[in-house]
Amino acid sequence: MDSFEINKIIAAIIVTLIIIFGIGKISDVMFNVEKLSVAAYKVEATDDDGKVSLASTDNDVDISALLALGSVEHGQKVFKKCKACHSIKKGGGNNIGPKLWDVMFRPVAAIDDYKYSKALTDYKKEWTWDEMNGFLIKPSKWIKGNKMGFAGLKDEKDRASVMLYLNQNSDQPKELP
Q1: DSSP secondary structure letters along the chain
Q2: In this structure, which topology does domain 63-168 adopt according to CATH?
Q3: pLDDT tens digits for the chain (177 residues)?
Q4: Would you kindly state where each structural domain of the chain is located, as residue ranges?
């Protein structure tokens, strides 16, 4: 191979690189693309039946649609998981966890005779439908630093039913949204 052929090969490689990088630069000038503020897309997950999942890390869940999935009777069955640590009876005492009679729309960490974690006492919100839903999905993620060792309720029907059951266990159940 003589030097002329080597020069042609090197020239072809250089021209190819110039074309590749040049097209990239020219397209950047021609098409002004603004960067997204959030590098993600919202994807609605579906369950096995093809229904759109209402669970979300955001607080944008349609609570009335979520609550329509549940029932008080189902909530009573699901609440058996909670009974190991919580009392739901009127006048009931605290167990490992605080008593939950009349918990809906009560301020977080409001029971005087229970020692809450610092995370819960500093939270300064009340147990609204949205707050309870987020907390029941995964308590340790919703209020970081709380000492509740419960994995959460991933199933929407279970969460909705527990919220309906908690609401029902009150002197004055709140109106559903």
Answers
A1: --HHHHHHHHHHHHHHHHHHHHHHHHHHHHS-PPPPSSS------B-TTSPBP---SSS---HHHHHHT--HHHHHHHGGGTTTT---STT----SS---TT-TTSBTT--TTS---HHHHTT--B--HHHHHHHHH-HHHHSTT----------HHHHHHHHHHHHHSSSSPPPP-
A2: Cytochrome Bc1 Complex; Chain D, domain 2 (1.10.760)
A3: 788 899 999 999 999 999 999 998 888 888 877 776 665 655 555 555 554 444 444 456 789 999 999 999 999 999 999 998 999 999 889 999 999 999 999 999 999 999 999 999 999 999 999 999 999 999 989 999 888 888 899 999 999 999 999 999 999 999 988
A4: 63-168
pTM: 0.66
Phi, psi (degrees; rounded to nearest 5) at 126:
-120, 165
